[in-house]
Hints:
Elements: E1 12-17, H1 19-27, E2 41-43, H2 50-62, E3 66-72, H3 73-78, H4 80-85, E4 92-96
Parallel strand pairs: 1-2, 1-3, 3-4
Amino acid sequence: MAAKGLELSNALMAVIGDEDTVTGMLLAGVGNVDARRTSNFLVVDAKTTPSQIEEAFTKFTKRSDVAVIIINQFIASMIRPTIDAFNQTAPAILEVPSKEHPYDAQQDAIHRS
């Protein structure tokens, strides 16, 4: 049985990342905006606060149609306590590198277990 009543047939990926990462994901077809103008992505720039990132992360983890959250690792580091406190099986959290910030396996919660 799926966790949280996850709608597997209509499952989405959510993206929290820099402009290049989100743009690439949107071009790949990941983007979704519903009738209420709710999107499944957040572009993080220099003006985005950690509380805004944390709010988007929390919102995405509570949605029943989101199966995976893709987040740039350097952005995940800004809200590391929130990500580390997340202990649900769905959605899966995938930390990815960005063009400007290489991947560091020591920071990834999956490798620190």
